[in-house]
Amino acid sequence: RRTINSALPATVLGAYPKLHGWHEIIDDAFGLPLVAYSEEIVFRRCAHHLFRAYLGDGYALIVVTSILFAAYHWWTGIGNIAEAFIIGVLLMLFYRRSVALWPVVLAHYLTDFVDFAL
């Protein structure tokens, strides 16, 4: 992701703010779980339910919901869009396998925690 974004810097339109001290702790403890939960509700549960009627429950559904998830991250650059697409595919496969949203939310949170907090 960083390599692609540094090769194509004009595609990065913004960046997440780097927090310090208590702000970072509060963001890691509350902000990241809220983001993971809200994105999973929209892109795994709602988009899955909406597009399943048109695409069935196959790989086309996984690709379309992952494209939407990647497009949602458009402002962070092509590298992050590609990473979000891959993670979207993996999370959708995990959602289909687990048939529950909470493991996917946890996986999304842990991915974000490793990406932002560490």
Characterise this structure.
This protein has 118 residues and is an all-alpha fold. The protein has helices at 2-7, 22-55, 59-72, 78-98, 102-117. Helix 2 packs across helix 5 and helix 4 packs antiparallel against helix 5. The longest helix is centred in the N-terminal third of the chain and has 34 residues, at 22-55. The two termini are 16 Å apart.
Task: Give a nutshell description of this structure.
The protein is mostly helical.
Write the layout of secondary structure elements.
Blueprint: H1 2-7, H2 22-55, H3 59-72, H4 78-98, H5 102-117
Helix pairs in contact: 2-3, 2-5, 3-4, 4-5
Question: Which structural traits does this protein have?
Answer:
single chain; 118 residues; mainly alpha; 5 helices; 77% helix
How many helices does DSSP assign? 5
Mean pLDDT: 90
**Fraction of residues in β-strands:** under 5%
Radius of gyration: 15 Å
Looking at the structure, what is the overall shape? globular
- The poorly predicted ranges are none
Sheet with most strands:
none
- How many angstroms does the end-to-end distance come to? 16 Å
Q: Work out the helicity level.
A: over 70%
Structural class of the secondary elements? mainly alpha
SSE string, helices as H and strands as E: HHHHH
* Beta strand count: 0
